[in-house]
Amino acid sequence: MSASASSRPGSRAWLLAETPHSRTQARLGQAYVRWLHFLRNPLAMIGLAIVVALIVIAALAPYLTSHSPFAQDLGNRLQAPSAEHILGTDELGRDVYARLLHGARITLLIVGLVAIIVGPIGLLVGTVAGYLGGWFDTVLMRITDVFLAFPRLILALAFVAALGPGIQNAIIAIAITAWPPYARIARAETLTIRNSDFISAIRLQGAGPLRIILGHVVPLCLSSLIIRITLDMAGIILTAAGLGFLGLGAQPPMPEWGAMISSGRKFLIDHWWVATIPGVAICIVSLGFNLLGDGLRDVLDPKGK
Amino acid sequence: MAASGDPLLTVEDLWVRFPGRTRVVEAVRGISFAVGREKLGIVGESGSGKSVTGRSILRLIQPPGQVTARRLMFDGIDLARIDEAAMRDIRGRRISMVLQDPKFSLNPVMTVGRQIAEAYLIHHKAEPAEARRRALDMLAAVRIRNPERVFDLYPHEVSGGMGQRIMMAMMLIPDPDLMIADEPTSALDVTVQMQVLAILDDLVSKRGMGLIFISHDLNLVASFCDRVLIMYAGRIVEVCQAARLREARHPYTVGLLRSLPRIDEPVDELQVLQRDPAWLDAPAP
Amino acid sequence: MIMVEGLDVTFGHGPSAVHAVKNASFTVAPGEAFGIVGESGSGKSTVLRALAGLNPAWTGSIVVAGEAQPPHRRRAFFKQVQMVFQDPYGSLHPRHTVDRILSEPVAIHGLGQSDRRIERALLEVGLGPAFRFRYPHQLSGGQRQRVAIARALILEPRILLLDEPTSALDVSVQAEVLNLLVRLRRERALTYVLVTHNLSVIAHMCGRLAVMNAGRIVEEMTVAQLRAATPREAYTRQLLRASLGYDRRAADQFETYD
Predict the structure, then answer these.
(1) Which are the contacts of A102, defined by CB distance < 8 A and separation ≥ 6?
(2) Residue C62: per-residue pLDDT
(3) CA separation, residue C238 to residues A146, B151, B191, C45 (Å)
């Protein structure tokens, strides 16, 4: 692994110092040790590479192809992969490669927004219910149970049907259906943390519940939540693709991968690339998030050490 | 070696190494000792290698840990040379081990009686009824007052002291020649501790079993064992008769003894052990 | 300094309820070191936790520094009373540096001069400033316990509650921590309540002690009486006998007291 060797020896020693001299140094040193640990897991590195590649592709999509994802060319319908269209064209003559690259943006938007909405909600509901207990716990957890009782895709379908099809509504629907498991995890973690001596100690310092939850409980729940969300990314992508496939997610002509598979399936036998290529992309990205999540589990899980 | 007779186990030049990321940790560094039909105490602080020594005799060190020894002779068998199948035959039946916390060693979903009977059946061909009778006898032998009732309890239904006695019954039912007890009473209250030790004591004196008693508690070892090995940083720094531990000469042993608060000898300030780097490489006594 | 009268603690409800402490009463004078000894389940730690305000489900009366204490303590109480826990691995937040652990109480009580206070607290417990930005996993058991003591002292309390402060430590480290606690009490005129199962630690640290068994205080005595081996109660005599080391004959005579 040459990534660690590229940093100067001086800064390496600074990061690995036994006796850090400032808060920043201690924090960076801790992160660096974790990074070194992460580097030793080749599968996790593959996962990270895939996710980074997805982000780069999404950011640079317009520069990686000269074709527009929307430009129709009915004379060139369903062309096989060639020098001009390296992944072929679809039923409206649009370049599949360009659509794939721009689709990465949508995929990233979906997973990013869902994670940003779902993480904090799950964390807050779970830690508050777990730490305060009593009525808070009962009420919050029964609400969580109600959401958990429905299969995720079915519930998302119901929400999208109510809100109307579209990418924003798909994200909202996925977020609404995705948070309960995180609340459950955060609550379970909180229950094990709540009675530990270091929480008793901070209570004896006179800290109130808000300070304890935010400063002491949340940091310990965070890692297992990050791991779980990363592992669930694949599921979120598939749900989004599923909604797209059923015509309830991204609407034409948006190059969403699920919608691309949906429109391409009619030509699957004779023109395999139209549906297969976005399918492969979903597969690779899901795999990448899964590998990354597994790697993060090794690095972040305090019990693993 | 007063009342020990022939050694039951002879350990020569035992090393245990754990390869780490940056360096190899040597947990045990070339120790040699012998155990007869006696109570041998191994005392040391955490990290001294005392527990690793006990586990390495039964070859319970997990890879990447490596155990090497010139000889590990147990009743004419060199434990360092035999294969895993032969080792399994010795483990449990001829040498057994009791650990600190019985909760981790008992199967939570099986009644304690069945577990003890099972331990008997693994090593003996017998009818289930015979195994049950043996298990009940064994529970009585470790002084459980109502064996019939305890037989049908699950591990979570018994107290710590009772759990440790059940553990012992399970380890003793194959009638081992040697028992390795790693802090068997540290989790117990002092009075229960005494009762559990009395059981071990009787087994050694009546059945002629050998006992390796690993502990951090100097006072306990001094009053319970026949002989004591004091370990420091993976080496044996001193061997002495337990009754004469107070006359120990090695500065480490002396320092440890003086750092203990005592009910009968009040002091204003406890002596703090000053560690000498030379102890690390001192030759074995 | 501390007056506990008729303290009763019950956990749970109905038939599965556990009566952990039954009618416990004792007083501790200012500057005194008072020990509570007992076996597991005797209720000794429960008394301490009720005293600290960690367990609000008790009845009876607890008076600290002349003030009757409600089940839920006010913030000012914690400036007077602090606690050190048994397990040095469990009492420090695994993701916080020593600096964060020590600065938190200063921030909660708005004391200011955080840097100066932290450095002084670390020096007082025998840890240099080099330890300030370390994480708990970079410290040994003894060092962690020193950090826990520093955290308790940073609010400059008058009473320190010690729950088995050295039973998770090696004997040589135990000696260092006990010496530290003795020195701090002398220098700061602190009042200690020390809970432990180890009679020799009590004999070393305290002047008086209470013996607890099955939720009750069975006997209160001075350490001089303990050293002279003249306890009144049979239970205490048995405890003392067992603490002195193994004795085959004594083991047969041990009884269960409930």
Answers:
(1) A61, A69, A255
(2) 94
(3) 57, 30, 8, 21
Residues 6+ apart with CB under 8 A from C215: C19, C20, C21, C22, C24, C42, C43
User: In this predicted model, what pLDDT tens digit does every residue of C51-72 receive, in sequence order?
Assistant: 999 988 899 999 999 889 998 8
Chains in contact with C, where contact means 3 or more Cβ–Cβ distances below 8 Å, are A, B
CB B87, CB B59: distance < 8 Å: yes
Which residue from A197, A205, A211 is facing C91, i.e. has the nearest CB? A197
Element (H, E) at C6: strand C2-11
User: Which CATH code for domain B1-84+207-285?
Assistant: 3.40.50.300
Tokens representing C230 are: 């003249």
Helix, strand and coil in chain B, % to nearest 5: 40, 25, 40
CA distances from B164 to A203, B100, B184, C257 (A): 36, 8, 7, 20
pLDDT classification of B214: cutoffs 50, 70, 90:
very high
> How high is the pLDDT of residue A250?
80
Residue of chain C minimizing CA distance to B252: C172
Q: How far is CA A174 from CA A104, B187, B233, in A?
A: 18, 50, 57
Pairwise CB contact (< 8 Å): C133 & A216: no
Domain borders along chain B are 1-84+207-285
| Alpha helices (H) in chain C, listed in sequence order | 44-52, 77-80, 98-108, 114-124, 141-153, 171-188, 199-205, 223-227, 234-243, 248-253
Amino acid identity at B262: R
Nearest CA in chain C to B195: C251
A231 or B232, which is more confident: B232
Which domains does chain C possess?
A: 2-86+158-253 (3.40.50.300)
Please state, in angstroms and rounded to a whole number, the distance separating the CA atoms of residues A51 and A53: 5
Helix (H, G, I), strand (E, B) or coil at B91: strand
CA of C212 to nearest chain B CA: how many angstroms apart? 13
Task: Compare CB distances from A198 to C86, C91, C105 and report the shortest one's residue.
Answer: C91
Is C200 touching B (CB cutoff 8 A)? yes
Contact C231, C198 (CB under 8 A): no
Residue of C nearest to A202 (CA): C105
Domain A57-304, CATH homologous superfamily name and number: MetI-like (1.10.3720.10)
Name every chain C residue with its beta carbon within 8 A of the beta carbon of B269: 179, 182
The span from the first CA to the last CA of chain C, in angstroms, equals 31
What pLDDT was estimated at residue A75? 81
Q: Which residues of A touch C (CB under 8 A)?
A: 18-23, 25-27, 30, 196-198, 200-207, 211, 215-216, 219-220, 302
| Residue in C140, C146, C171, C174 to test binding to B, most B beta-carbons within 10 Å | C171
Do B223 and C238 make contact, defined as CB atoms within 8 angstroms? Answer: no
Using DSSP's 3-state secondary structure scheme, residue C245 falls into coil
CA distance C150 to C82: 11
Task: Name the strand (E) or helix (H) holding B182.
Answer: strand B178-182
**Tens-binned pLDDT, residue by residue, of chain A (305 aa):** 344 444 455 788 888 777 778 888 888 888 888 888 888 888 899 999 999 999 999 998 888 888 888 888 888 788 788 878 888 888 888 888 889 899 889 888 888 899 889 999 999 999 999 999 889 999 999 999 998 888 888 888 888 888 888 888 888 888 888 899 999 999 999 999 998 999 999 999 988 899 999 999 998 888 888 888 888 887 888 888 888 888 888 887 888 888 888 888 888 888 888 888 888 998 999 899 989 988 888 787 654 44
Nearest residue of C to residue A24, measured between CA atoms? C133
